Records
---
Amino acid sequence: MAPEDVVSRVFGVDRGRVTDATSNTTLAEWDSMGHVNLILELEATYGLSLSPDDTLTMTNVEAIKRVLQSRGAAW
Amino acid sequence: MSRVRDKTGMTHNSLSADLLEQLIKAATKASTTREAIAALTELNTAEAVVWLITNEATARAQCAPRDLAELLDVVVKAGLAGRAGTRAGDLAKLVARYADLAHADTLATVANSLPAVLRNEELVGAVHKTLEREPRHAGLLRVALDHALRKKEMFEAHRLLTRLGRADDSQATLHFIWRKRSVLKPTDRPPVRIALMSSFTIDPLVHYLDLECRAIELEPEIYVTPFNSWAQEIIAETSGLRKFNPEIAFLSVSIDDLVGDLGGLISGDQLEEAGEAAVDRILVAAKQFAEWSDAALVVHSLLSVHREPLGILADRGKPGRAAWLERLNARLADELQKLPRAYVLDMTDVLLRRKGGALDNPKMRHMAAMRLCGPVVGDVARAYTHYIAPIKGLTRKCVVLDLDNTLWGGIVGEDGPHGIRLGGTSPGSEYQEFQRYLLSLTDRGFLLALISKNNPDDALEVIRSHEGMILREDAFSALRINWRPKPENMIGIAEELNIGVDSLIFLDDNPHERELMRQVLPDVLTPDLPADPSLYKATVEALPQLQKLAITEEDRTRTQMYQAKRQREQTRVSAGSLEDYLKSLDITVTIGQVDEASLPRVHQLFQRTNQFNLTTRRYAIADLEAIAGDRGCRLYTLRARDRFGDHGLVATALVRSEADTWRVDSFLMSCRVIGYGVETALLATVGEDARAAGAEKLIGEYIETAKNAPARDFYSRHGFSDLGTEDGVTQWVASLTDANQTLPAWIRREVA
């Protein structure tokens, strides 16, 4: 499952609306609570534990992919 | 490869079987999805999609369903990966066409890849059909939900959201559900105003509690005090909490938030003082709350996420953290008891009973000040409903129990009173534990009643004299031990006890009986019982409808009161609704003659069947082999299945043909399927065969035993006349010239 799929599922938005540029400023559903849920789901989906620093930078899809790749996740 | 152009104008491979074979190979032999996708891209997935749509019959004929499902999955993945030039619409058409065998995941992946407006009726129809097969598939439930929302089917949307929460209880999904609900019109269920006051971030609990309240059919309105201001909200006269005016409030304060240094070595007098001060703060707040509110107040008992700093040396020399917490909690409970409507929620108890996941997620604690995380939040929400349900008057009055495989293991009519499992060791101790729990319900003012399909003498012998039995006759306020439909008995019990059917809970191990009860009497609460009897107690304990806010003297003596006025009345349930239920089961019977493979099972039925057995002749396997080879005999077999599953070979009949008469020597059926009319289907088949062979009459024999009362009226029920009894054998006769044994309308028959 691609990171876009996780973002689409967590926030309940059409898969087609999620691009690299999708961020916590472009999606109303991506609020602080939503961010916590997104981190939990990314960790569960890719079987890894994200550091607090990582979670602070993962505020758009492009950054999420970069961090996930640097942690060895593939999809 | 040669290519042809067909009348749809699409080019595709003319060597269809070859193409199919290559596709299958690529899909099933490749070791990874990536490899399979690569192979399929080379084979031109776009053509494969069109080919599979236009050549459905060939594909289905040449390919095992499981292989085809794999193939569809890989084709879809390759198509969606965008490398194969396929159109999303074609993929949707493809999975909809093969929805009966496609993996639910495949269908969900395609549907979710399309924007909701582009999902056509065919695709949505396939999703609903597949949901019947896989009712808890979260991806498909989301598609169905989108559809309901788009069609503005608000009630359906509410229902699907609740199902989705049961299918996937992750924090993210529960949040999603709650957000979706907030834009829906509220239901017309009774509203309940709930306040959550906490020293930490409790927002996820709102989402889980919302779901759990809806599961007990309430429309919740939940207020959360602003972060870290639970105490201020209780005190300030103009606070949002006071304006909200809750019916019930939950106070969850973490000792870790009140005593700063619990992560370190704080101990001795310092620890004592800090602990007492923390409890004081909670008690002051609780008392202030009680001054202005009539609401029930539920206070979490105190828990610390920090382990004993002394490790295994705790409690050596001086009291450790566990003992300290215990003392604080004891004082909290003592003092709260003095307030009229305050309760303690024992968090240790909640944790003890939860499954999977950790209470404390350190990252979330630091990132979001959240001290309840993950699935445990659902457990807390369920624990909350144990307070909410009785406050809203949802408490039931009477638990109605089945006997066989519910209160003991096995079937008394088959295994005999000494063959059932019930006692101090397993198997049997599970049922005893369950009975002890049920008996404790009578101390809390709940009534118990029995509905069992059994011979009264068999069942009562166990209840009165089995040494493992905890629930004796005087524990039950009403008994219905007979062969009538259970909903009919249920109405009788409600009338006898003079309570509404909506005061009843029905517990039965048999899913068919539960389904029948739900269809005929939806107001009776009929929870599912797990297949494992060791989980019966926990399942029933978890019902919020068995909680009471207080226990009165009348509660303790209620069973005796009802005992005194026990009376029996029977009320007929409308035949229409019973037949509707039977129709809804989609019962199919397959009737054939015994063969080598079925002989052992037929022999077993002859040996073991006691209740629905017309003559109880116990033929040995050698006898049955001889009978099977005898041209003057027919040994029928009947298999039954319905939409809940396959019952297997459940009935058999031995018929001897003589000139113009066919004689039914033996006719027996497993008690598992009593009440569905399959015996009528078998008798009708025998009658038809006899007529076809030129016989004029059918004779049935009946030999009464201590156990076969359920079969006593079999022949009279089917229009036979009594020819009299000789040497214990009653002969019944029916003329074959007028067809009076017909297949029940709700049964479909196949010939083996």
Note: Residues 32-46 of chain A form the longest helix (15 residues).
---
Amino acid sequence: MRELPRVVVTGLGVVSPLGTLPRFWEELRAGANGFVPIDWFDVGAAPPATVARVRDWQPKDHIKPAALRRMDRFSQMVVGACRMALADARLELTPARAEETGVVVGAAYGNLSETEAFLRGLIVKGPALANPMLFPNLVLNAAAGYVAIELGLRGPNFTVCRNETSGEAAVALAYDTIVCGHADVVVAGGGDEVSPVLFHVNKDLGTLSPGRRGAAGHEWSSPFDRDRNGMILGEGAAMLVLEREEHARARGAAPYAELAGYATCTVPSKPHLWPRPSAAAPRVMAAQLRALRGADEIDAIVSCANSTRDLDAFEAAHLAGLLGESAGRALVTSVKGAVGEFGGSGALGTAVAALALRDGLLPPLAALQRPDPACTLRLASAEVATLPMRAALVSGSARGGACTALLLRQP
Amino acid sequence: MPSGPQVVVTGLGTVNALAGSVHEFATALRAGTCAIGPVTVFDTTGYRSRIAAEVPHELAEAPSGPGAALRRRLSRSDVFALRAAAEALADAGLPGDVAPERIGLALGGTTGGMLRGEASLRARIQGTRDRYPSAAVVGAPISASADVLADAFDVAGPRLSLSTACSSSANALGAALDWIALGRADVVVAGGTESLCRMTFAGFNALHALSLEPCRPFDRGRSGLSLGEGAAILVVESAEHAARRGARAHAELLAYGNSADAHHLTAPHPEGTGAILAMRRALERAGLEPDAIDYINAHGTGTPLNDAVEAAAIAAVFGDAAPHLAVSSTKGAVGHTLGAAGAIEALATILALRDGFLPPTVNLDDPDPACLLDLVPRTSRPAALRYALSNSYGFGGNNTSVVLGHA
């Protein structure tokens, strides 16, 4: 096979519990988080009662009123993030270019709140009164469809679902879509929305943090902490403009980073559980990673660690196994102590890796107090670290055992 | 793009309303049987339409063998996927000596474990239970069936669930093709699974898209679609890999093309521009001119708008040849299986190529003169086919065409 075309990241759009860009990046570096008490649905008597919530962004600044009225909240976040990403990339969408521009969105659940509303109406009022206006919004790819409609993008249009790593999976599929020649440009990323049902299910499963030990009532997300005791759910959307390098160069774009490729595999795991540390880092995935340009220059890692006992333990073993001897060199962070866990968190992590490469610094694990002694990684402490930043790895692993590691490097 | 290797389909499996195996499916397709009848999986009181192509009860029971340990957690979609995958893997002689990490998994679907999620939500609303039963909801995401298959069959390569509404599993075949071309896997287990549920039934019912009688694609009197359910799984690998391990090829998988209408979330573009783009992209990547295509398995849902737009799009791509081009829809037989439709119809297309027949458009009595194609009404016909196209279109304005060839 001939050498594959290179792919670069030329634009970023973020709708997050820490705001949009550039505020999101400033807040993240400053160690802020987007956690708020839930006051818009009944959470029950006992904690947890906190999520990371997208609050202060104005969809109407990005989406026309007529379209906004039809669009569910999750789609609004995705469409908004796409519009910001394309503006950031300064990509002029001529008709010819729009026809060759694709969209890949990753979401674990998508528009679950309207799904519940539709079903509630069906159950309470009966099928004759089921709301036909809601139904089209309930397909997982409604957001990607709205992106195509609002921005006129007629290239390949995919929506992928892979639990907490839906965002990483979307970026990976977008990479393949470009290198296989299906599109010159793909706007790729993902998102998800906090909904009552998702909150209650995770609460019942015991995966949510009930609060920091000794500090009653305050949920606490601290990836890789010795005392971590669960995740906090989050939401938002992050979309990246991925572009064939030649195409970006021809139009004079200034890339944040090169997306050098990805490594992926499935490790043994029950479908509803995070995999065990013993399943971590199969040789085949480490070999895939080593084959990528820049794999020996990884200075930073944006990890999927979400403050659960299980995933963080797996991830520590996984990264150590994937990187071998160089695992001790790279500085490791996670965004989930700031924005929580959701299907698009890996897309947000990919945006963070791109920003880290541009600015040469990595946002901290702000809540980290006592690093887990079982974790041998070099964790980014409360200080924002400036370091030589040649390449950054985004590592995602999901319930059910699907793992993807995306490698970004200096363009 | 590097011109990829030749890719073939070496394993087939299905469960649908017509059949519990590929052999039964081929027989029923040739016979022109319609499997659309009364819905029994949930109460349809109060719906305009009360029919669908439902999988027989015994085929919706969790199978013994791989996946049985998960029995309690399996959704109806999971069960269909497990049964179809077991048949396809056995047919392909897998795993044999293929390393688990060289086997990928790409699955399409749109509702996952929704049927059970609905029941638990109903219980919660009606107060018979005051919590969301977590097992039901954690089993509900669209990615769950792929998780179940990976666990049951020890598939350790790349894994993806695609959800692009009714083109989901056609796009899963596309991902499989690209993975083989890029060397991400030697073998990909690809397809789709979908079960009937109240959400889609009520949604299409509310949109007045459900036909009151079994659907009649391309008929002048067509009045909507009939929903269906089931799964189809294809085992995809390079011809070289298949030959090396002595696997028989049922068909060649040449290319796919995808496009977005960028027009409307549910209505197709009136001129079919997205459908035209998808067919042209697929043909171009396959290196074929339109006149090489002998048969099209149409999306053909039976809604007035879809069939008219699809026929016009085919006419635009195939020009003067269109009136004589064999085009049929399998949905009169197995209903519209949404996320599984792309895979079930690719399977029908493969059987047509392999066994040399044109699957009929079941329930088509009075071909719409506005759809000027050879619509293979009612009865199958023998035909030697070299190349065929399978079209799948979905909500979101998503269009996918897959090119298949005689092995």
Note: The first strand of chain A starts at residue 7 and ends at 15.
---
Amino acid sequence: MYSRGYKAAVAIPPLAWVMAFLLIPYALLLCYSFWMVNEGQIVRHWNLANYRELVHQPLYVAVLFRSMRIAAMVTALTLILGYPLAYYLSIIGHPRKDLLYQLVIIPLWVSYLVRAYAWKTILGTAGVLNTLLQYLHVTSQPMGFLLYSPFAVVVTLTHIYTPFAFLPIYASLEHIPRNLIEASHDLGASRFKTFWRVVFPLSLPGVFAGGTFAFVLSLGDFLAPLLVGGPSGIMISNIVQNQFGVADNRPLGAAISLCMLVLIVGILSATERLEKRWGRV
Amino acid sequence: MRSNLQRGGGWLTVHAVLLYAFLYLPIAVLILYSFNSEGVGGFPPHDLTLSWYRTLGGDDAIWSSVLNSLLVALASVSLALGFGMPAALALDRATFPGKTLFRRLVLLPLILPGIITGLSLLMLFATAGMKLSLMTIMLGHGTALISVATTEIFAGLQTFDRRQEEASLDLGANYWQTFWRITLPNLRLPMIGAALLIFTLSMDEIAVSFFLIGRDNTLPLEIWSRLRRGITPEINAISTIIFVFSLIMILLWYRLRLRMESKEIARELISAV
């Protein structure tokens, strides 16, 4: 029913935007990654030196692995925290479930930066937690490992991404036909067996979606590590950001961010495939 | 069956209480210490005061950054809706070569860490010789947030009855009139929802802005530059004000939606009679 003109009119402006502000910038990122820098000037001399440095310099590989470890821990924690709450609200049901659902979302309205900063004021040696513990005579000295450590990064990122993991899980639990659960009970399955054989498999698309969000976003985070991570909590994006700042080596930064982009797109298509496989039960 | 399901809810209740505590602890600390005379941290807080709010009132740099952020947010909403709306219509209705790639690219910034969107755009602006300014941040936010507008409006289109448009076209209206009189009014709710979401996300955005900033700071970047110099409860104060403001926005949105939904229900009831 829609004419060619109509289709062209709705398709062309967004296509042009995507071309100009997504496709071309990614292509430029790719070009830059094969260039080099000489005395602060970009030299358009095509070579593989940046990628070679990435592989040979142990620092980059180590930081990449640390970032993936931190992201994996954050993902596991957000799922462990988010799933039971989603199950509680959706499957068991709570009289105030809409309100409780909103209460998970409201923290998202507090600036990301401000929440990371709040954790800094909580975890510091003169921070709220340490002074509280000393006030209560639980500890006599401030615990230094709380702030400027990978621990602090994991706590902060878990706090930020738990709602992101919760939302898709909750949505997928809400979509489960309730008569399937009833049927499982009527046929004599225990509560655990019903969960394991009926509810959990049907909620997997939500788990994959939430887990992907948490993993990918925390993998690329650079502000939380800067605020609460300290030297031992540096992540891969900090190295990228450094190449665009102090180190002033944009081509190398472009090469690292391109590797991140490829890694992330790989993860996205893998989880999409998993979602499709588990989504139809 | 209900009793069977609800047994064992005890552990889950405990878990829920602890999780809410975890989610709200930083916010509570943030608000509480905005009234603390002796800086951030240190338990118990004492000598509660409003002096940080007074300092904030006279802080011109913060308020000009708030103004910048509002400008950027308004521009982002217009850009994201202006391009996200046709993008959603195109995904819903048109077939063209590369549509799958187009869908993936439009939605990619939604899930991509901001640093990649920010850097790739920085490469673009550097290559094009564009000076970094609030303008480049607007383009960055627009690019990152078109995905939000597209998903919200696309979802709205899925429940939209195309026969209304068909009727309008059959009765002699052209596409343009049909769009303004039928399509747009029907998508009012997802559009308002998307606009509010984009506005808030833009106000809070820092990863993309971080790389595209010129001379003028947005609020998150102004806060960021102060955090590096040392922390004062003034930051808690401005954050508290913005939190309260956001809460009011959420409440307004719910009331609006409730009213609209009840109106729509009423209309359906009338047509059913």
Note: Chain B has 13 helices and no strands.
---
Amino acid sequence: MNRDIAKSRQRRRIAAGVLTMTAFLAVFVTPFIFILFQAVKDRRAANRLEFSWPESWHFWENLVAVIEARNYIVLLAFFNSTIITVASVTLLVIFAAMVGYVLSRRRTRFNGIVMALVLAGLMIPPAVVPTIWVLQGLGLFKTIHGFVLIQVAYGLSFSILLFRAFIATIPRELDEAAIIDGAKPLQVFFKVVLPLLKPVVVTNIVVQSVTIFNDFVNALYYMPGRENVTVQLTLFNFQSQFSSQYNLLFMNILLITIPPLLVFIFFNRQIVAGMTAGAIKG
Amino acid sequence: MQQKRKRRSPYPTWFFLPAAIIYGTLFLVPNIASLWFSLTRWDLFTAEFIGLANFRQFFSEPFLVKSILNTIIYAVVTSGLKTVLGLLLAVLLVSPIIWRGALRTIVFFPVMVSTIGVGIAFTALMHPTRGAINVALENAFGIIGPGWLTDPSLALLSVAFVDIWKGVGLATVIYMAGVVSIPQDYYEASRIDGATKVQQFWRITLPLVWPATITVVTLSLISGLRYFELIWAMTGGGPGFASDVVASMIYKQYQAGFYGLATAGNVVLFILIALIVLPMTWWFNRREVEA
């Protein structure tokens, strides 16, 4: 009789799983299948917006058409977005780690102010027009390096919180040993501490690169003009240009979704760790 | 044998400097400057002081007032549903269900995807006549679906729905960490006392995930008040001004060259966030201490 109960419980578990999976696929995956189907259809079929199996597959044709559109602007956009993402994330990781390190190791009179500013950075919306004014004053408006610095300024708060929480868990003895051996502060930081921060560095890289790669609003404000387009801006502009070529529009969405998808496949665990870090402290 | 000189700390405060310079120049200075520029008529070169006229305009133009209401509606709806659904999904996804890993991956993936891409895809799905949603409604139930994004009374909520679809994964993941950290003993003890699953949820899970709730509500509320990417991708604030929020209004005023008014909008948005989030955080923390 016990076996019967176990068996029926097992059957119930499987039924619940199948039911949940079906619901999840229907709710969360269908839109992606729609994007995929739209991207490979021919122009006429795609413009019907039907959610249907493509009658004919035009993957290469559409891909080439999107890449060649407006004089290879998609390639330029991918190039710009890659540079922006790599540069901003590099600076973010180093600068935020430095702040988090001193913040958790030493009680300075700045600590209170620094923490208040970090929290302010999470809460206060950036004042966009005055920021443009500052950027213009510095000659950095509409430039890639200006935009990189913007991304760093906006991302610092989150990264500092991640680093501070993690560094607190690393024993002080490690850096103190190096200090006694006569290492300079920079040496201690780069040679001893930073290598120990690998897990949180990976989390930072993953989370921030996805955020910055997907950022649209800041690009809209700070990077107007053709030569500085980012992938998200190109996609947004294609929305009006390709209003009668849905296949190309969706092929562009597909292209833009691939980098985060790769990151997601390789770093799933770190992303989840990063998103939840510090969350539980409240 | 007195100390010759105060030894320099091995944790120098100049480590704050690089971050402080960037943050100070590109975040603090503009935000402080916005307090002045919001009181001016401004074209980026000359600013003429006009007192509170920008703010008066912000609170008297019907479409600007509406954008403030819309911001609150949008933030409350998205934040509320993300919190409730996130908690339910988290409870489901930490239970011993089959394919758990795959299910977690599926819920979280939309968080990673381009907002503009998602917005365009759903705009197509929500097309009033050809969109898959309305076609499915008609084929399955014979209902003529509404114009999700073209009906002024629905547009904002439709966008909010997509926002929830895209963002619920983040709430779920945060809640999952919270639920996992609840000691199993509580559940075992309550089971021996004969508690049902529903009772366990209300009496154990819900009170003990409180810190996660604070995080989810605060994060989703702040982002709901601040962001307009999805609105911009799907409706552009339309039809008319039906789905405009303060953030999209700021952009529109900026585009139109009303820099002073746009900056005043920024100040309004900041005050709005502070008025909602600060008392809430205070209340949350007090409840946590009591609990």
Note: Residues 278-282 of chain A have pLDDT under 50 and may be disordered.
